[in-house]
Design a protein that fits this description.
By secondary structure, the protein is an alpha+beta fold. Helices cover about 25% and strands about 30% of the residues. The protein has a twelve-stranded antiparallel sheet with strand order 7-8-9-10-1-2-3-4-5-6-12-11. The longest helix is centred in the first third of the chain and has 33 residues. It holds the Pfam family DUF1365.
Length: about 325
């Protein structure tokens, strides 16, 4: 355990009045504290990692087949407006058979949960970056939900889990893997507003995987694209803990570093909408409902009342399409 004691002249920062006036200062302070805690925890667990790896056996299913496939890939982002900015970095992902894995990853859906949401009857695979030495950071996880028809297995639906940094808020929703347009429903970056839609596409994972997401904005057009491409590698001799060592940390550092460069280039900083628009989730639901019913009106969110109900709403249009958005709030200390 590590405790940070603040001197008396910092007491005003922690007052309830200051919280309302200077929320950004509080978030920066908490971010620094969380970073220090993560650093020391990961450092100590990293020292123990070689010894734990020697004693740990890789999980196998009852049939003797490993339930996890390993992928080495590249993440690429490109912003075209209001200025051009792009980057790429290497990434490592695990594709987990949720029906065969003896210990499914924590804080994720089970195979039965996914089948219930997607209305499928086949296997479910989770593409994600597993936690490493006490730290978990995963901007996007995907569930691949298959339908079994006779002797054929068809990728029918996908479930996306989008998580933002550093708040660790999460939104989950269904989408069609062949191609789909989804209303933006999470504040993923302080340099992007909440308008626009996500255009998403992915393939059925095999020897290769790809995921593409582009943002269609009412003013900026198709101004942002992100992609993940990867190739499956042999996992027969790989130690999974060592393979993913510090991978979540590298993702987090890349996010902060690129955000710093955008700020340096003068891209406008956009505050989290929870401070100015508490109904932004309901507005996303309305935009997605209109996107499914009448795409021509998908960008217009004016003159509509917020939807009533919980944060998990099922919307169904006249064509029978369903989209379920489920939000997870920020954890302490961001809440």
């Amino acid at each position: 355990m590590f405790a940070i004691v603040l001197p008396p002249f910092h007491s005003s920062i922690l007052s309830s009045e200051s919280w309302e006036v200077h929320p950004d200062k509080m978030e920066i302070l908490f971010l620094l504290c969380a970073g220090l805690s993560t650093f020391f925890t990961s450092f100590l667990l990293s020292l123990l990692l070689p010894f734990r790896s020697l004693l740990r056996r890789r999980p196998t299913s009852a049939a003797g087949v490993e339930p996890v496939s390993l992928y080495q890939g590249t993440v690429w982002h490109e912003r075209r407006r209001p200025l051009r900015h792009s980057f790429r970095y290497s990434a490592r992902y695990a594709l987990i058979d949720l029906d065969r894995a003896p210990h499914p990853p924590p804080n994720h859906l089970s195979a039965d949960d996914c089948r219930s949401l997607a209305q499928t009857n086949g296997p479910v695979f989770l593409l994600t970056i597993p936690p490493s030495v006490g730290y978990d950071n995963n901007p996007l996880s995907l569930y691949y939900c298959y339908e079994v028809e006779g002797f054929t297995k068809i990728l029918k639906q996908c479930i996306a889990e989008v998580t933002n940094t550093p708040w660790s808020e999460r939104v989950s929703f269904l989408f069609d893997p062949t191609t789909d347009l989804v209303a933006k429903s999470l504040h993923v970056s302080p340099f992007m507003d909440m308008l626009g839609n996500w255009s998403m596409r992915t393939n059925a994972p095999g020897d290769n995987i790809f995921v593409t997401i582009s943002v269609r904005h009412p003013k900026l057009g198709d101004y942002f694209t992100a992609s993940l491409t990867g190739k499956r590698i042999s996992s027969s001799a790989a130690d999974h803990a060592l393979f993913f060592w510090l991978m979540p940390h590298k993702v987090a550092l890349a996010i902060y570093w690129e955000a710093l460069k955008l700020w340096w280039k003068g891209v406008a900083f956009i505050q989290h909408p929870r401070y100015a628009n508490v109904g932004y989730r309901q507005e996303a639901l309305i935009r997605d409902m209109k996107l499914q019913c009448c795409p021509a009106f998908s960008q217009d969110i004016q003159n509509h009342q917020p939807l009533e109900g919980s944060d998990s709403d099922l919307l169904k249009d006249k064509n029978g399409r369903n989209r379920r958005f489920t939000w997870r709030d920020a954890k302490w200390p961001w809440c």
